[in-house]
């Protein structure tokens, strides 16, 4: 049974869905004004692994990932969604494009990159700009209830009217008073009130009509509107990176729960950062790597995927090329083992005696995933299966290769790893056969020459006790 760390309760909790057998999952998706970077992928991979593992455990998951194509301002990380410029509009101006052209381009890029990384596509990717009427409806009701106020065409949520403000992040109004410096919008009553709707300046590129002004929505309201539209009032799981906890998710809770009167989310799952030299990888710090940077260095998307999963989602991870090399080595050994399983023929009689029992691996793998999606531990179980299996294969004692192959495929499916059955080139196979013959004639000098020739071509031959051999990629 899956236990997952819930930011709301600050505990690892047994996962229990609202409706038996079904899970609603919402992921805060990209702001499409720039290329998604490896840090973003660390967060999206958590949602992907969560979904894969829930599906593997028999749940039917409905996954929504929004596309932020309006409203995310350049200072949203430090302010309450009311200062700075719209990130997409700013990019559109600098690239002499329309905001839609900018958003379309980066959304396409994002989807193509997710596909390469074998991240399952969400069932739907709603765009913020297509949900303005839904946002307006929510804002109207919040005004009606006296929980929001309008001034000069701007609408703000009044955080003092939501006593539970701070319950997710610990940033209660009492705590926020201490030492916090915030640029205040002149129309706000309290510094921590956040924007639901802002009147657009004349030069602003993205404007929508509303009862209050020709303007645009605050960043937070879009997720409330889209989560409600596609998943209902209370959802099972909401994911995002650790920087989303405050103010974004705190604001989502305040406005959603005020609007519906219901609990918004049962499980909040936040992925800790991918770092570069100890600092958060981010667009604004210009210290980010894109998928293409990794591919350009000769690494594959699966090697990157494995590298990002080599730390549990609740831990930060420092990005390095060394990390990718390590993942390459691990993936090589997994794929080698997988390839060997196809060609391998056991010595039937002895193999029967030493059957490879798989239950323990399955249990350990499940226990690792159940423990807050502990992907590094799950990977360690796979590597143990590979190493133990290799030993048994070398002795020709592995009696159930088909079963092992199925188990490995199951594990790979949960971690989203695409296994590769390697075809050994004909030339290498011939050289290895030749080498086997000269060895039978005890011509070890020629055998060494042939080994070197094979190695130069990127392969290794490993001899087994019975005079047979295994070919592996170097
Ligand atoms: P953004 O496009 O900036 O809104 O980010 C999209 C998602 O990626 C959000 O859930 C962020 O919290 C997450 N994110 C951004 N940077 C990182 C990072 N360095 N490590 C992990 N997640 C990140
Ligand atoms: Zn969001």
Give a nutshell description of this structure.
The protein is α/β, with parallel strands linked by helices and 474 residues long.
Kindly list the characteristics that best describe this protein.
474 residues; alpha/beta; Rossmann fold; Four Helix Bundle (Hemerythrin (Met), subunit A); 3 domains; four-stranded parallel sheet; 16 helices; elongated; binds adenosine monophosphate; binds zinc ion
Please provide a written account of the structure.
This protein is an alpha/beta fold and 474 residues long. It folds into three domains: 3-271, HUPs (Rossmann fold), CATH 3.40.50.620; 317-415, Anticodon-binding domain of a subclass of class I aminoacyl-tRNA synthetases (Four Helix Bundle (Hemerythrin (Met), subunit A)); 426-473. It contains 16 helices and 15 strands. The protein has helices at residues 38-56, 87-95, 99-116, 132-144, 173-177, 219-231, 245-260, 291-296, 301-308, 321-343, 348-353, 359-370, 375-394, 401-415, 426-440, 444-456; strands at 3-6, 11-14, 22-27, 60-65, 148-151, 154-157, 194-199, 215-217, 235-241, 265-271, 274-276, 279-280, 317-318, 459-463, 469-473. The strands form five sheets. Strands 4-3-9-10 form a four-stranded parallel β-sheet, with helices on both faces. β5 (148-151) and β6 form a beta hairpin. α2 packs across α3, α4 (132-144) crosses α6 and α13 (375-394) packs antiparallel against α14. The longest helix is centred in the C-terminal third of the chain and has 23 residues, at 321-343. It starts with a strand and ends with a strand. The model has no long low-confidence stretch (mean pLDDT 92). Adenosine monophosphate binds at residues 28, 30-31, 39-40, 42-43, 240-241, 243-244, 271, 273-274, 280-282.
